[in-house]
Amino acid sequence: MEKNREILRMHNQGFSQRSIAASCGCSRNTVAKVIDSAKEMGVDYSPDISETEWEAMLFSELDAQSGYKQPHYDYIHRELAKSGVTLRLLWNEYCDSCRLAGEVPYMYTQFCLYYREWAERTKATMRIHHKPGEKMEVDWAGNTMSLRDNLTGDEIKVYISPK
Fold first, then answer.
1. Topology (CATH level 3) of domain 1-48
2. Residue boundaries of the structural domains of the chain
3. pLDDT greater than 70 at residue 142
4. Does the pLDDT value for residue 83 go beyond 50?
5. I want to staple 26 with a disulfide (CB 3.0 to 4.6 A). Which of 16, 30, 42, 65 is the partner?
């Protein structure tokens, strides 16, 4: 939900914290925290820096204090788009990489919570708005079911369709 880049851009243009908060849809405390963190780091707004880079720059000390290794949420989001990949599988990979590096991983519930927060904050999900009953969409994600013919032994792909 936080828009660090937009907050810093508007602050650089001289907008008040109240108007920045209203424009970005966040609290004035969030705006103040982003601006104070940028001042402490000695950085100023630059259009060349992406939102994820701003977040890493401004709030990296919070991650370092927690003692837990932060997962790579971009990687997790890309991998979840693949067939057969689940959050549990990605969490197991994350735990293995943490243990090899001697770092402390998050438990599964925290891992899922932080990923959901990241996805909501970065709008990494696709929302399709339409009137109920106007369209029908079928999700063909995952492996296709199959049946085996009793007589020939051939495998038959099975697709489930609504009536």
1. Arc Repressor Mutant, subunit A (1.10.10)
2. 1-48, 67-127
3. no
4. yes
5. 30
